[in-house]
Amino acid sequence: MEIGGKSCTRLDKDVVAYNLRERLQHFRTAAKLLERIGDHAEKIALAVINLEELVQNKAFLVRLESAVQLSLDILEKAFTALMVGDLEMANEALDARGWLSLTVEELPGR
Predict the structure, then answer these.
(1) Is the dihedral of CA 96, 100, 102, 103 positive or negative?
(2) End-to-end CA distance of the chain
């Protein structure tokens, strides 16, 4: 068999297959994390539906803005970590989920 124009042995094929499976698992894990971030964004969006009543509440607007910014920061960090293969950055994005959950839970009108 040839891969990239080079002849490969059975061992080479096994290594390529293992690396591919490992990489696919990383993408699957990242997809799950991105889905979770999306779930938080959905919660924020549902809170915004009640925005007309809550717009008078300055504390609500500050918390909402904080939750939105935190969600975007986590998404950007997680996606960047995935694209560059930075495990430390990926862990930082994972750790930030707790803060986002707390921020969303504190939103009035949930």
Answers:
(1) positive
(2) 58
